[in-house]
Design goal:
There is one protein chain. The radius of gyration is 15 Å and the shape is globular. β2, α3 and β3 form a beta-alpha-beta unit. By secondary structure, the chain is an alpha/beta fold. It is 41% helix and 13% strand. It has a 3-stranded parallel β-sheet, sandwiched between helices. The protein has a single domain, classed as 3-Layer(aba) Sandwich (Rossmann fold). GO terms for molecular function: phosphatase activity. It holds the Pfam family Put_Phosphatase. InterPro entries: HAD-like_sf, HAD_sf, Pase_PHOSPHO-typ.
Length: 111
């Protein structure tokens, strides 16, 4: 289970006591070791996992009016290693994923 017991809660100030999304993402990245990760988010609760992503990863942060994640990424750019792209619709999310796949293909076969 991704949830942490309330009795021995994590110390993350951005997440609820029973679930640190950042810790979950960190464990997932360590266990599965993907070369890249695309994280889609919109709220303050998505900021913690966004700070755990790596340079080759991508954050798709929602545009206004539901843009708490985007605001935090802009306000604290030194805490974010991943590339931040904005999204406003499901088509934007699909385009962001497609752009990442195209970049991966080009890296594997540059000719």
């Amino acid at each position: 289970s991704p949830h942490q017991p309330v009795a021995s809660a994590h110390r993350c100030s951005h997440c609820p006591p029973n679930l640190c999304k950042g810790k979950v993402i960190e464990q997932w990245l360590e266990t599965l070791a993907p070369s890249r990760c695309v994280y889609v988010g919109d709220g303050e609760g998505d900021y913690c996992p966004a700070t755990r992503l790596r340079v080759n990863d991508m954050i798709l942060a929602r545009q206004p009016p539901h843009n708490s994640l985007l605001k935090l990424c802009r306000a604290r750019p030194k805490t974010i290693s991943a590339t931040v792209l904005e999204w406003g619709s499901d088509a934007d999310v699909l385009h962001g994923g497609s752009a990442l796949l195209a970049a991966m293909r080009k890296a594997l076969d540059p000719f």
